[in-house]
Structures
1.
Amino acid sequence: MGGRPASGLPRTTSAGSRLRPAKPPASVSPVARGSPRAALGAQEDELWREMVEAEGRGRRRWAENWAFLKDYDPMGNKKEPEQLPEQVPRFSDTVPNCSSQVVGSRLATPLGRALVLMDFAFTEGAHRKKPGAGLQPT
């Protein structure tokens, strides 16, 4: 009951159409299954590898031909290498720092006030506006 037919013929439904073959196990990769999506993924992977290789070639070519420009300013004068400080403080006196790295407790400072004004100016369109006195229902 409910088993395979003894004749060895493929199983069919009552309408006569063939049943779908059993799916391969999930451990089999799409490439091994030969799906078109897997083939597309392999092509995309190959294109990505070629693009990365071309970018590396371009970087090496730039270093050979144009790297000397990084030592000169736009006027052609030789730039002095910038000396980095020995130690950099972790917190700033001018930029507000808080645990979430957003504008925090220093809103009363001139910089904090400027940031609040900029925030208001950039998000003004998202705020609800009261209709004018002429548009109020009576």
2.
Amino acid sequence: MAKIGQLLTLVSCILVHHSVVSAVEEEENEGSCSRQFNNHQNITVVAAPGPVGPKGDMGPRGHAGTPGETGVRGAPGKLGPVGPRGERGDKGERGPAGEKGAPGTSPPAPPVVAFSVARTGILTTSQTRVLTYDVILSNVGGAYTEGTGKFVATFGGVFFFTFTGMTANAANSNYYLRLMKNGEKMVSLHENNGAQAQYQAASNSAILMLRPGDQVWVELDKSGRTVFSNVNRYLTFSGFLIHAD
């Protein structure tokens, strides 16, 4: 019971001082509380916590730290999906008219080549020969030569040619005409009356690619061939340029 009384006395001293007082501090006070502590140094007393004190003032701001090294740049992200199409904007105002441009240069006019000739007389031959024409209907460009009966191209291009033939009004009258280019046969005409005396006429044509200097003419085959014409001009030879190179 004596120990319990002493313990109660210690608790009272603690409640009065709101803390545990050490034996050293109590030596300055010679009260009963110091004597209780001195006599019971091995007793541990647990007191209730005191009230929370007021918040202290904010301390000074610390010095700014040294910036760290820049990190490695990350890989680019994946391309996102295409967004929805926006609404169509309003039509803008019409701008002012531009300045008038300088007049351009016209391309050179394409060359014109065209000829048409006719024959008025009969021709009978025992050997192959060039058929000549004595009437010049037109010769634009001057590429046809009356004396030789030949057309000579002055430049390259695409040309159209046509020619006609006619038999004499006699039995067994016949002819064989050929359109020639540089000595090579292009197209031909052939008529034969047989036993009946009559006139028979025909025509043929061709489109030829020519180079400068190429020659084109109509040729009558040998072996007694005969072509007929008179002032009515049944035998003709014509040509013109379609497109120049």
3.
Amino acid sequence: MWKTLRPYAMVAPAVLIFALFFIYPIFYMIYLSFFDWNFVSPTKDFVGVDNFTVLSGDSEFQKVMWNSLFYMLFTVTLTISLSLLLALWLNKKARIYGFIQGAVFSPHIISLVSVAMLWMWLMDTDHGLLNWALGLVGISPVQWLSSPDTALWSLVLVAVWKGVGFNALVFIAGLQSIPKDMYEAAALDESGPVRTFVKITLPMLSPTVFFLTIINMIGSFQVFESIAIMTQGGPINSTNTLVFYIYQYGFRFFKIGYASAAGVILLVLIAILTIVYFKLMERRVHYR
């Protein structure tokens, strides 16, 4: 009897913790989305789908959705592209490349709060290092975080800088797992570097690209710290994204039901994008 129950007993603590801190909050958020509650009152007023109706017609929320999709698209695209190029360059055995790998990975282990504060100084309009460097080549100062035209791009830059090192190391691991005899066969066939990359390297890296795209996409929708520290969603709501919007309405304005409804939409949006990506890539990912 114990031999049958022992595997379940061993995984029970992990399952309990997962259910308590992940599954239960999701269902409770869905439950709260149908109520009007101020987080303090012991009573909750049932409003049905009114929170979702108000959200669908709210121009501020529509702007937040656009900002979130824009941030996700460019963060994921730039991070994956640059990290792949960096991995192709660093996938060598010389000791110097090992040192560079450690250097480019270091931003990943730095707290995002520290990264945000560092980039706030670098992007300061009057005293920032970036504008000082631009001034040396005769370029006018850029309003990195204070202009609606550049603020969201600036946050994308910070996200790419922090994430490219981790993604590059994962790509390097994927490159080193590709059998060398495939490249030897390509060399005997006098295949050029571009054709070799397209026909061998990229297909063999497709599981790695698939994995990194999914985790980067989900992570980009969860961005909070850099926005909370660097822009507070401004200027003119140009950098407000879904998680920060949920935080604002939940813990600043105490509209818990409204914030929960936005959280449900975020959950559904991530699920839809993930499913669509799985369907689009299921025949393009090669595991052998």
4.
Amino acid sequence: MSLTHQALLFDSPAAFLSAAVPFVREGLDRGDSVLAVTSAENEELLRASLDGEVERVTFLPAARWFESPGRTLDAHHRRIDSLPGSTGILRVLGEPVWAGLDPLETTEWGRYESVMNVALADAPAWLMCGYDRRALPEAIVDDALRTHPTLAVGAGSETSGAYADPVHYYAERNVALLPRPGAGVEWLPDFVDMAPVRQFVADHAVRLGVPPGRLDDFTLAVNEIATNAVRHGAGRGEVRMWATDRRVICEVSDTGTATDGFLGFLRSDPSAGQGHGLWIARQICDLLEMHTGGPGTTVRLHIRRYA
């Protein structure tokens, strides 16, 4: 079975349950691995509707599952890899957490929803993504129609007429240069090997707000991207680092142009000797922005600041 990726647009508890309950029950009847990652309110509704079957469903907090786009994609891969036997599939009833996101975070989660159609295209998985019309901005609901090939309608489905090819959707978000940061930017103007890059991160990251417990991982992520700049760019690059109210950002830029599609969203072959850098960086960082083309390639690695 290949991927089924549906949007469930609902405006009442009844509308949510009319699609969610048949989806879950069918999965349990088939012996699928069923995850429910919804709001607390919808989890309560679902538990009440499943009666004696509820213990067979794995419930996870939505804030934990939808922590960052890269880690959520990897979580799907790990669940699929651990499926028992060859008959069951992974079913996820999920509600992405949109509340409290800034525009950049909202954009990246939209990109994630689109790229899932490519990253898990051949996976034995059925993802039903809930969108509460009562609470979400219209733009997010409209975008769901573009990132999900089908819509859940009760116990059935219909094609989304607004669905956008992920190649085109992704390209829309790679058309503009990333805006330049303001004041307070630390700068390593030129590097040709990794030691100065790692030292640069060590000198500035914690002072700018990177949680000390995440420093080693953040250094690894920056090192992976900087290594790509040397290997695939012009053999050198530059690094900048600064802080916003929410995140610390490290930018690695070079004069090369990347050609691989969906950069860092597609898991590399574990047996390959290289090509894992962007994938690793996406797992570590809370967000990863990338622009390629024009004057070169720029990657921004974001990590949430500690309070």
